[in-house]
Amino acid sequence: MDLRQLEALVGIADHGSFSAAAHALGTVQSNISGRIARLETELDTVLIDRATGLLTSDGALTVARSRRVLGELEALMEDVISTDSEVVGMVRIGMIGTTGRWLIPQTFDALAEHHPRIALRITEGTNSSLEAMLLNGQLDLAIFNQPSASDELSFTPLFDEELVLVVKVDHPLTQARRKKNGELSFTALRDIPLLLPLTGTTMRRQIDTAASEYGVTLIPSIEIDGVRTLTSLVIDGYGPGILPATAVAQQVRDQVAFIPLEGFLRREVGIVSRRFGLPSAPSRAVTALLESIIAEEENLPAGIHRVPVA
C-alpha cells in the first residue's frame, strides 16, 4: 500500500472529485485515478462509486483510517524536526465562534512570541460539527463546550461561561420585575417564545434542565444549532434568546440587554482531543499555550470565569 494512494482517497473525500483532488495534490487526474484503482485492487473492494462520485461504505471506512495514518505520519515528521527551543509544524484547530472571536487574536499574538514557526488552520463550527471533524481526523484539537460521551475523546476544562437571557434594549423583559440581586426568574419566561439552541445539543440540555427545576417548559420560537446565527436574530429583534455571555460582539452590545437568570448554570468550555494516539509537538505546544492564556490573562471577557484549580 502506497501512502500516495491514501492521500488520493482523502483528497477526493475532501475536495469532491478526482480532478479537484489532483489539483489540490499538485498532480494530474490520471495519477489520482491510477492510485485509487490500485488501492481498490489491493483491498479487493470498490471505494468510490464511479456513477455518483461518492464514497462507498468501505470507502468511508478507509478514509477514516487513512486520515489517522496520514495524521500520524505528519505528527512524526513534525516531532522529528521540532526541538525543545523551536517547534515547527501545522495545527488544525476547531473553535466555536463565540470563543474564537476573543481567543483567536490572543492565540496568534502568543504564537508569534513563543512559537513563530507553528502555523494554525482554524475551523469555526458548532459543537456537533467540530466533534465529528475531530473524530474523523480532520482536526488535531478543538475548543467547545463539553462533548457527548465518547471513549475516543478527552476533555480538559479551560473556563466556565455564563449563559444569560439576551433581549433588545426596548423589550418588555428589560422592565420585568427582578430580584434584588438583578436576576430574572425562569418563571417569567413561562409563556414567552424564545430563540434557543437546537434540541439535543449540550447547551440546550443544560438550559432545559435549569428551566425544569423551576417547573418551566420553555417555548422555542426557533431552534438553531449555531450560536452566532441565534445571536444575530436576537440583535435583529426576532425575540429574546438564552445565549453565552460572549455571544454578542462588542460593537453591537449597546443594542441589547443582558439579564442573568436565577440559579442558572454556566457552560464549561475546554480543549477536546482524541484520547488515543500521541499528539504532535505543535499540537502539544498549542494546547499548553491556550491553557496559559486563560490562566494568565488579567482581563478575560465579561462572563468568563477560570476553572478553579483542584
Task: Write a structural description.
The radius of gyration is 23 Å and the shape is globular. Strand 5, helix 7 and strand 6 (219-224) form a beta-alpha-beta unit. The longest helix is centred in the N-terminal third of the chain and has 25 residues, at 57-81. It folds into 3 domains: 3-79, Orthogonal Bundle (Arc Repressor Mutant, subunit A), CATH 1.10.10.10; 84-158 and 268-306, D-Maltodextrin-Binding Protein, domain 2, CATH 3.40.190.10; 161-267, D-Maltodextrin-Binding Protein, domain 2, CATH 3.40.190. The protein starts with a helix and ends with a strand. It has 9 helices and 10 strands. The protein is an alpha/beta fold and 310 residues long. The model has no long low-confidence stretch (mean pLDDT 88). Strands 1, 2, 3, 4, 7, 8, 9 and 10 form an 8-stranded mixed beta sheet that branches. The chain has a two-stranded parallel ribbon with strand order 5-6.
SSE topology sketch:
Elements: H1 3-15, H2 18-25, H3 29-43, H4 57-81, E1 89-95, H5 97-114, E2 118-124, H6 127-135, E3 141-145, E4 153-168, E5 193-197, H7 202-212, E6 219-224, H8 227-235, E7 241-244, E8 256-260, E9 266-274, H9 281-296, E10 304-306
Parallel strand pairs: 1-2, 1-3, 5-6
Antiparallel strand pairs: 3-9, 4-7, 4-8, 4-9, 4-10
Helix pairs in contact: 1-2, 1-3, 1-4, 2-3, 5-9
